[in-house]
Design goal:
alpha+beta, seven-stranded mixed beta sheet, two-stranded antiparallel ribbon
Length: 566
C-alpha cells in the first residue's frame, strides 16, 4: 500500500526547515502544554516526531483509501435530495477515515480538541490530500475556516463550534452570490437583527463549495441602505437550526466529488461573528488569505500527481524500441515539470512559515503584551506573508495547470482517454487558477509588493545567505535576472502611469516570482543536493522568462497600450 508522505522525501525536507524550531517553540509556548495534555510534546524533537507520525497517517489514508476512491467519486459525484447534499459513497468513506484518524481541526488549540499544529504541517497534509483526490481536499481543507472562527469569534462561539469541527463536522464559507462573483462588495444576502440579538438571513448564495456543510461562515449585508463593503458583516450559521436549502449542485468540469452549491436562505437563524461592518474589510480578507494558501497547496498536490503520472508512463511506454523517457523532447518536458513542482512547493512552504510566524505572535498577543522585538518580527513576517500568498497562489496554480497539460502530452493519445488518471487530473487542475481569486486578481494583490520593494527586500535576504561554492554559478544567474528586473521596475515606475503599471503588472510579478523561487531552490540545494537538478532547470527557464518580460516591457510603450484594448 502506498504512503503518500513516506514516498516523497521532498516533504520531509521542507518540514525540517531551520525556522521550524522557532515556530514550534512559539506555537507550543515553550512546551508548557505538556503539563496539561499527555499528548502534547515536551520539546522540539518530540513535536517534530508527532508531526511526522500524523503526516504518515495522512499519507497512509491518502495512499490506501482516498486515492483508491478518486475515480469512482469522479464518476458518481454528489446528489441533492430534499434540499440536502448526499456525498458520493467514496467521499463518505474518505470523511469517515479522516474523522476516525483525528485529522479534523488539526491547527486548532488542544483546549478545543485540536492537535495544535502549526500552519506548515497542516498545509503539508493538504498537499498530500490533494495528490490523492483534488476534489476531496476541498471538503477536508475547509476545516481551515475554523482559523477565522478562532481568530474573530468570541469565547462562547469558539467553545461551541470549534470542538465540533475537531470531532469531524464540516465547514463552508458562503461568500459568492449570483450577481456578485469576485466583487464581494456587491453581496446582498440580507441580515436582519432580531430582538434577542440573533439574526435572520435571507437571499441566495452561489458557487459555494461544500455548501451543505454543518457550520457556515456567511458574508451578509447587515446595514440597511448600504451598497459597498462597509455594510457587510460575517455570520455563523449552524445547519442544525435549519433555514438553508440546497437548490442545486453545479455540473462542473472537474473536482466533481466536491459539491458546489446554490443555497437559498429563508429566515435562517445566525449569529454575528466579530463586529458589524467588518465582514468584508477584515474577516473575509483573513479568510481568503487562508483559503488562497490552501489552494496553493492543492495546486502543488496536483502538480505532484501530474508529474508522477507522466514520469511513470514515460518509463513504461515504448516507441521505436526504447522507453519514451529516453527521447530528449520527453525528458526535457519531465525535467521542467519537476522544476515547476519543486519551485511551487518551496515557495508554498516558505509562505506557510511566514504565516506561522506572524499568526503565532498575533495569538500570543491575546495572552500578553509583545515585546518591541516581537512586534517588529511579527510585522516583518506579516509583510512577507502578504506578499508571497498571492505569488504562490497565482504562479503555483498556473504551474499546476501547465503540469497537468504536459502530463496529457506525455501520454499522447492515451492521455485523452479516460483509461488514465491524467484526464481527471487535467480537469481537476483547471479550477485552481480561478477560485479563491483568479490569477489576474492575484496579480492585482501582488503588484504593490513590486512597486514598494517588498519582493526586492525578500530577494536580498536570500542573496545574503551563504551557499556552497558549486552553487555560486546559479547565484550569478539570479543576480543577472535581478538586474533585469530592477531595470524593468524602474522603467515602469518612471512612466508614472497607473494604467501602464497595471498593464505590465503580470510580467513584473512573474519576474519577481521567478527570482524568488530560484533563490529558494538554491537554498534547498544548499541543504539537500537532491534539488540541484531542479534548481538548474528552473533558473535556466526563469532566466529566459525574465529576459522575455524585460524585452517586452522595454519595447511596448504607454502609447502602444491603445492597441491592446478590445
Amino acid at each position: 500500500m502506498a504512503n503518500f508522505y513516506n514516498d516523497n522525501p521532498d516533504l520531509k525536507h521542507h518540514l525540517h526547515h531551520p525556522l521550524m524550531e522557532k515556530i514550534v517553540a512559539l506555537k507550543e509556548r515553550d512546551y508548557t502544554d505538556a503539563a496539561k495534555y499527555d499528548y502534547a510534546p515536551v520539546d522540539f524533537a518530540d513535536a517534530m516526531d508527532n508531526y511526522e507520525r500524523v503526516l504518515e497517517i495522512v499519507g497512509e489514508i491518502c495512499g490506501g483509501v482516498i486515492a483508491d476512491n478518486a475515480e469512482n467519486v469522479d464518476h458518481e459525484g454528489p446528489t441533492v435530495a430534499d434540499g440536502r447534499v448526499i456525498y458520493a459513497s467514496g467521499t463518505q468513506a474518505n470523511l469517515e477515515a479522516c474523522r476516525k484518524a483525528g485529522l479534523m481541526g488539526m491547527a486548532m488549540p488542544r483546549r478545543y480538541g485540536g492537535l495544535n499544529f502549526p500552519i506548515t504541517p497542516y498545509i503539508m497534509a493538504a498537499d498530500i490530500v490533494s495528490r490523492a483526490d483534488t476534489g476531496f481536499e476541498n471538503l477536508w481543507g475547509l476545516q481551515d475556516c475554523a482559523e477565522t472562527l478562532y481568530e474573530f469569534g468570541n469565547e462562547d462561539q469558539k467553545s461551541r463550534f470549534i470542538p465540533r469541527i475537531c470531532q469531524g463536522e464540516t465547514m463552508s464559507m458562503d461568500l459568492t452570490e449570483p450577481d456578485a462573483g469576485s466583487d464581494l462588495q456587491s453581496v446582498m444576502l440580507k441580515a436582519t437583527e432580531q430582538p434577542d440579538g440573533t439574526w435572520l438571513l435571507n437571499g441566495v448564495k452561489r458557487f459555494i463549495t461544500n455548501g451543505d456543510s454543518d457550520i457556515h461562515l456567511v458574508l451578509a449585508r447587515s446595514e440597511d441602505g448600504t451598497k459597498d463593503g462597509r455594510g457587510l458583516s460575517m455570520f455563523i450559521y449552524d445547519k442544525r437550526d435549519g433555514g438553508v436549502n440546497v437548490r442545486r449542485i453545479e455540473n462542473k468540469m472537474g473536482i466533481k466529488g466536491s459539491p458546489t452549491c446554490e443555497l437559498v436562505y429563508k429566515n435562517a437563524k445566525a449569529e454575528l461573528c466579530g463586529s458589524r461592518r467588518l465582514g468584508l474589510i477584515k474577516y473575509v480578507m483573513a479568510l481568503m488569505n487562508g483559503a488562497r494558501l490552501g489552494i496553493a497547496a492543492q495546486s502543488v498536490g496536483v502538480s505532484e500527481i501530474a508529474y508522477r503520472e507522466a514520469l511513470a508512463y514515460a518509463k513504461d511506454r515504448k516507441q521505436f524500441g526504447k522507453a519514451i523517457i529516453e527521447f530528449p523532447a520527453v525528458s526535457e518536458m519531465l525535467s521542467v515539470m519537476k522544476a515547476k513542482l519543486d519551485a511551487s512547493r518551496t515557495l508554498l512552504y516558505e509562505t506557510a512559515r511566514f504565516v506561522d510566524m506572524y499568526k503565532v505572535y498575533e495569538d500570543i498577543a491575546k495572552e500578553r503584551s509583545l515585546t518591541p522585538e516581537e512586534r517588529k518580527e511579527m510585522k516583518y513576517y506579516s509583510k512577507f506573508a502578504d506578499a508571497c500568498t498571492p505569488l504562490i497562489k497565482g504562479m503555483g496554480s498556473e504551474y499546476c495547470n501547465q503540469n497537468a497539460y504536459d502530463c496529457i502530452q506525455v501520454h499522447g493519445g492515451s492521455g485523452f482517454m479516460k483509461d488514465y488518471a491524467c484526464e481527471r487530473v487535467y480537469r481537476d487542475a483547471r479550477i485552481t487558477s480561478i477560485y479563491e481569486g483568479t490569477t489576474q486578481l492575484q496579480v492585482v494583490a501582488a503588484i504593490r509588493h513590486v512597486t514598494t520593494g517588498t519582493y526586492r527586500a525578500l530577494i536580498d535576504t536570500y542573496a545574503a545567505q551563504d551557499v556552497k561554492p558549486e552553487l555560486e554559478g546559479l547565484r550569478a544567474k539570479l543576480s543577472e535576472m535581478c538586474a533585469a528586473y530592477d531595470k524593468a521596475v524602474q522603467y515602469v515606475l518612471e512612466v508614472n502611469n497607473p494604467e501602464y503599471t497595471d498593464f505590465m503588472a503580470r510580467r513584473l510579478v512573474e519576474m519577481a516570482g521567478n527570482i524568488v523561487m530560484g533563490h529558494l531552490l538554491v537554498l534547498d540545494a544548499n541543504r539537500n543536493e537532491a534539488f540541484i537538478g531542479s534548481a538548474n532547470v528552473y533558473i535556466n527557464m526563469g532566466q529566459a522568462e525574465v529576459a522575455k518580460h524585460a524585452d517586452y516591457i522595454a519595447s511596448v510603450s504607454p502609447e502602444q497600450m491603445q492597441y491592446y484594448k478590445a
